[in-house]
Specification:
CATH topology of the largest domain: D-amino Acid Aminotransferase, Chain A, domain 2
Strand content: 25-35%
CATH class of the largest domain: Alpha Beta
Number of helices: 8
Number of strands: 15
Order of helices and strands: EEHEEHHEEHEHEEEEHEHEEEH
Bound molecules: N-(5'-phosphopyridoxyl)-D-alanine
Helix content: 25-40%
Structural class: alpha+beta
Shape: globular
Length: about 290
């Protein structure tokens, strides 16, 4: 079996009730996460040993598990305990925790098996967002959203997102912004915002997109810095004519898009509204680290 990747071998992970080095962690090939992508996940950032909005991440995990009818293996207090322990073992610094729950190991058959779920949790150092991306912004392309219809579930079945993101990377872009019938949904692994006539617009929560924890924080921070916010359907043409476009996620925080397909967004530099929200986001992280 392949060894852990360089640099990560000594990371302590949690697998099926035990803490162990990543290099020793083994999952059965008949795990339904492997065979069917029959699993849900979370990515939770932590700054200076403090999780960002852990309760919101755990609430979303509970929601995903309920939607796909995988029994929740732990009560909320136990999740909290496990995640705190793993972060302590990981040591200080910023981290991002990947957590996955699959339906478990069983002979291959579409029908739900009667077996315990597989739980895997892995910490990684959280790479700071590069200065180039903060100051220069990102390039994005637009594509039809070809994923399934249950995007509110944080499912590990991500082949659609992987193929779409790769289309962006192959064209030298950073992210793909998706739309269904010319209504913007989200990015391959980000939520989308547009600044239109001074208002921050983002599509409302629905089964067409994942309700990002960062998205909700960005909306709160935008309101705090006195930007009007609107959760409403966002047309592709509106996006293409927006003064600013932003993307958010747990690992990318909030970044400006400065080029959409072949066209510059605004003057091709991250905009002033984005800068206010980005500053507020950095202050939010600093408060978290100081706790
Ligand atoms: N992805 N939409 C999709 C499809 C995502 O995969 C993600 C995050 C988001 C943003 O959610 P949040 O703000 O809670 O991170 C929106 C994670 C980071 C990933 O798959 O690595």
């Amino acid at each position: 079996m392949a060894n852990a990747l360089p640099g990560e071998a000594d990371t302590t992970v949690f697998l099926d009730g035990a803490f162990l080095p990543l290099s020793q962690a083994r999952v059965h090939p008949l795990d339904r996460g492997f065979i069917y992508g029959d699993a849900v996940y979370e990515v939770i950032p932590a700054y200076g040993g403090h999780y960002l909005r852990l309760d919101a991440h755990l609430a979303r995990l509970e929601h995903s598990l309920a939607e796909v009818r995988i029994g929740n293996p732990y009560p909320r207090a136990q999740w909290n305990h496990l995640l705190t322990e793993l972060l302590d073992r990981h040591g200080g610094g910023d981290a991002s925790i990947y957590l996955q729950v699959s339906r478990g190991v069983a002979p291959r058959d579409h029908a739900f098996p009667d077996c315990p779920p597989t739980v895997f949790i892995m910490p990684r150092p959280l790479q700071p967002v590069s200065e180039k991306q903060v100051d220069g912004g990102l390039k994005a392309i637009c594509r039809e959203d070809i994923r399934w219809h249950w995007c509110q579930i944080k499912s590990t079945s991500l082949q659609g997102a992987v193929l779409l993101r790769q289309q962006a990377l192959d064209l030298g872009a950073d992210e793909v912004i998706l739309h269904r019938d010319r209504w913007v949904t989200e990015g391959a692994a980000t939520n989308v915002f547009a600044v239109i006539s001074g208002s921050v617009v983002t599509p409302p929560p629905s089964h067409w997109l994942l309700q990002g924890i960062t998205r909700d924080l960005v909306l709160e921070l935008a309101a705090q810095v006195d930007l009007p916010v609107a959760e409403r359907p966002l047309g592709l043409e509106e996006l293409q004519g927006a003064d600013e476009i932003w993307l958010s996620s747990s690992t990318k925080e909030v970044l400006a898009v400065t080029q959409l397909d072949a066209t510059l967004v605004g003057n091709g530099r991250p905009g002033p509204a984005w800068r206010r929200v980005w500053n507020a986001y950095q202050a939010f992280k600093a408060d978290l680290r100081a706790q």
